[in-house]
Amino acid sequence: MQCHHCQKNSEVGDRVGRRETCAHCGWDLHVCYNCQHYDKSSYNECRETQADRVLEKEKSNFCDYFSPSQGDKKPGKDSTLDAKAKLAALFKK
C-alpha cells in the first residue's frame, strides 16, 4: 500500500487498523486517500454507496468499507483535467 502523505510503500495485511501509521512518515494509514474506493469525482468522494460520509479524508476514520489502495491516490490529482489537457495538446495546431 502506498502512503498518501510520503508516497512510499508500506507493508500492510488485508486489514488496516484504525490506529496503524506509516513506518516512514508516521501518518495515519486508515484514511480515505489510501482507500481503493476513494474517487474525487464521486458523490462524497467515495465509490462505496453505503459508506458514511467522511469530512476529513486525511485523518484516521472508522469506515468499515476501507480497503487498501494499490495505486497512486494522491489528493488533488485530477484525471479529468489531465485528460482534457492531453486532448487539447493533441488537437492544437
Summarize the structure.
This protein has 93 residues and is largely without helices or strands. It has one helix at 79-91.
Element layout with pairings:
Blueprint: H1 79-91
Biggest β-sheet description: none
Order of helices and strands: H
Bulk shape: globular
How large is the share of residues in beta strands?
A: under 5%
- Give average pLDDT, whole number: 86
First and last CA, distance: 42 Å
Number of DSSP-assigned strands: 0
Low-pLDDT ranges: none
Number of helices: 1
Which range best describes the helical content: under 10%, 10-25%, 25-40%, 40-55%, 55-70% or over 70%? 10-25%
Helices and strands: which structural class? Answer: little secondary structure
How would you describe this protein?
The structure is a single chain. The protein is mostly loops and 93 residues long. It contains one helix and no strands. The mean pLDDT is 86.
List the main descriptive attributes of the protein structure presented here:
93 residues, little secondary structure, 14% helix
